[in-house]
Design a protein that fits this description.
Blueprint lengths: L1 E5 L10 H16 L4 E6 L4 H4 L6 E5 L7 H18 L4 E4 L12 E5 L15 H4 L9 E2 L6 E4 L7 E5 L11 H12 L4 E5 L6 H17 L4 E5 L5 H9 L8 E4 L3 H9 L3 E4 L9 H7 L4 E4 L12 E4 L4 H10 L1 H14 L5 H16 L2
Parallel strand pairs: 1-2, 1-4, 2-3, 4-5, 5-8, 9-10, 9-12, 10-11, 12-13, 13-14
Antiparallel strand pairs: 6-7, 7-8
Helix pairs in contact: 1-12, 6-10, 9-11
Length: 364
């Protein structure tokens, strides 16, 4: 079997679940299945010597000629199918969430964690190209975290989505490590941590209301740290916080991936909202770091279940914050159940599951 692997966005400095899987899982698949051939379709030749082991694979360097929508459309729907036919590909494994609209072969789209939508590298692709991945053209049927989910794009051969089951090593910090991170990031204060898009939307406004109730009832010094990319919504959030009663206890950060991991590891609790999957790896990482997770109903993190996550609705966010703060037994149960939820997550498990998804896609 010839397996084409699409990785157009992953560069030497790229961080995130897609890049981690590409570096850790794909070489394992190549080594474990010498009877099959792998075609790597990438815009960068760096993978030749830095990632892949010698053996049964070939690199084809390809990328759109520019960022204009027409360049992407031509590359996606004409150049890629031609390269796939020329290489004799039997199945396409895409690490980018992208696939030709008429690939002419089964497609396995890779989503690093359940709750991620396709194109979880936001802003990389012109909006016109994303239309294929929205609305009725792509129907995703998801199961539990780490499960294989079917994808049924209209007018194509169909495909499979493999949901990831690995994450950075993590691990609970000792008291001194936590104190060092807190001193550097929040002046030494404990904090609730929200990770995700920064905007003035209803979900984040609801979190600020919940924190107001927490501050009013508990008289606690815990800060609220809002960590996310500096996008267009950040200015609207800044204006909103200008009139917020507890603005001195709210801190907005735009951390690099490594710094965000430190923030999660040292947090008093992690809060996840309905964010379409952005930063969905933070909840499993928090589990590994013995940090309790609070998640809005309908979010990806909430699917881990109420044993591992304190799920809250639009009206009881404040109660959730207070419960994790006041009830040490509940906090300990959340930490234990969260640790158990990711106990079997490993790169070996991820490679096995991804290979099963590729095989199932090829058999369709």
């Amino acid at each position: 079997m010839v397996i084409a692997v699409l990785t157009p966005f992953i560069q030497p400095g790229t961080e995130g679940p897609e890049a981690d899987y590409f570096r850790e899982v794909l070489p394992r698949l190549v080594r474990q299945h010498p009877e099959h051939r792998f075609l790597l379709l990438s815009g960068y030749a760096w993978v030749r010597g830095e990632v892949m082991p010698p053996g049964n694979w070939e690199l084809i360097t390809t990328a759109p000629r520019g960022r204009h929508f027409l360049f992407w459309k031509y590359w996606l729907n004409y150049t890629l199918p031609r390269l796939l036919r020329k290489g004799g590909a039997d199945v396409l494994l895409s690490f980018s969430g992208l696939a030709p609209e008429k690939a002419g072969l089964p497609v396995c789209l890779f989503l690093p964690f359940e709750g991620h939508g396709p194109l979880s590298l936001p802003g990389t692709v012109p909006a016109g190209v994303q239309r294929w991945l929205k609305g009725p053209r792509l129907k995703t049927l998801t199961g539990q975290a780490g499960a294989v989910a079917t994808v049924l794009p209209a007018g194509t051969a169909g495909g499979w989505v493999a949901t990831g089951r690995a994450l950075p090593a993590g691990g609970a910090l000792d008291w001194e490590e936590r104190a060092d991170i807190q001193l550097e990031q929040t002046g030494g204060r404990e904090y609730f941590l929200y990770t995700g898009p920064l905007n003035a939307g209803p979900d984040l406004v609801g979190l600020l209301k919940a924190y107001s109730l927490f501050k009013k009832r508990q008289k606690s010094g815990l800060k609220l740290v809002l960590a996310g990319p500096a996008g267009s919504g950040a200015e609207a959030l800044k204006s909103l916080l200008g009139t917020y009663k507890y603005r001195d206890d709210v801190q907005v950060l735009h951390p690099a991936p490594g710094v965000k991991a430190d923030l999660v590891s040292a947090a008093y609790a992690l809060v996840r909202l309905r964010d379409g999957g952005a930063g969905a790896e933070d909840a499993p990482f928090a589990f590994r770091s013995d940090v309790p997770v609070l998640a809005a109903s309908g979010s990806a993190a909430a699917r881990f279940g109420e044993e591992a996550v304190r799920v809250f609705g639009p009206e009881d966010g404040g109660e959730a914050l207070m419960e994790v703060y006041r009830d040490e037994r509940r906090r300990a149960r959340l930490i234990g159940a969260g640790r158990a939820a990711v106990a079997d997550w490993s790169w070996e498990t991820a490679a096995d599951r991804l290979w099963i998804a590729v095989q199932e896609a090829a058999q369709r």
